[in-house]
């Protein structure tokens, strides 16, 4: 039931273009990804309560990539700088930023963190 309510909430917010249920493995994949990448790839926010795991290719466009680490990026929901909304969705959840993965790699390399490993 919780998965259905989450899907309805996502649909209302424009996060999905059509109704699909997420994999039951998604919560575990999300948790493991945040453990591996516990920092916003844009502003370097570290507060775990403000971090989101963003799909580079949206779940609504390609559900087969939902659990792929190479399709994920950590972005924040910080009120002052909502990187998830601004950089991940160009300030509109119906839009996508296909270059967010390249931005992640460039920023991490320029800060000396090294290339992102999949």
Q: In words, what does this structure look like?
A:
With 118 residues, the chain is α+β, with helices and mostly antiparallel strands. The protein has one domain (28-110). The protein contains 4 helices and 2 strands. The chain has a two-stranded antiparallel ribbon. The model has no long low-confidence stretch (mean pLDDT 83).
Brief sketch in words of this structure:
34% of the residues lie in helices and 8% in strands.
Sum up the structure in keywords:
alpha+beta, 118 residues, 4 helices, globular
Question: Which helices and strands occur, and which strands form pairs?
Answer:
Elements: H1 2-12, H2 26-36, E1 51-55, E2 72-76, H3 83-89, H4 100-110
Antiparallel strand pairs: 1-2
Determine the fraction of residues in helical runs and give it as a percent range.
25-40%
- What is the β-strand count? 2
Q: What can be said about the biggest beta sheet?
A: 2 strands, antiparallel
Strand content: 5-15%
Please trace the helix and strand order, writing H or E for each element.
HHEEHH
pLDDT below 50 for ≥5 consecutive residues: which ranges? none
Count of helical segments? 4
Q: Give the number of domains.
A: 1
Q: What is the distance, rounded to the nearest whole angstrom, between the alpha carbons of the first and last residues? A: 32 Å
* Average of pLDDT: 83
